[in-house]
Amino acid sequence: MSGVRRLLIETGAVQLLHLDLTKGTLPLPGCLPKMDDGNLKYQLARCFDAALSQFIASEGSEADTAENRGRLAARLVVLSKLGETDEHQLASNAALYLRAFAGAMRIASSAKRTQAEADLTSHIALGPDAIDAMVEALHRCLDELPQGGVSSTARDVLQKAILEAAGHGERNADKLQAFALEKLRTRS
User: What pTM does this model have?
Assistant: First the structure.
């Protein structure tokens, strides 16, 4: 069925219904309001403007994309077809949906970056010279820190920084040490 856009509405894992957005009707005739009311178009336009304003106010102007506008319009149509007629509720619910979608996209993007970083470090092949430089750099870092001992968190920061720099090709123990100590100083 090319050219037919379908929207699946789900609650948890329970599939409620399919809407065919290209025809303007639901597969359950008579159960929900129809889209033929001329005033409804104006109502949806006002809701779209209000919801978009709310969304941009919370997410910033860079979130004003064609994709987000399309998602917002589709969500308003769905909410309207499900029987919501209050403009304030339509706009608020649609803006909330779009903010949740944007948050989910940020989480997914963050997970992809984390996976990419893990893939980078998992494929690093270090020779004996690199390992010697890394061990020397770590020992120098630990010698430079206070004698009272180094916390496991600080040791992790140093080790990860040294591994990161070595993974990018650095083999000089002095530079590895300086990089690791700087990472330790600037950590949040």
Answer: 0.43
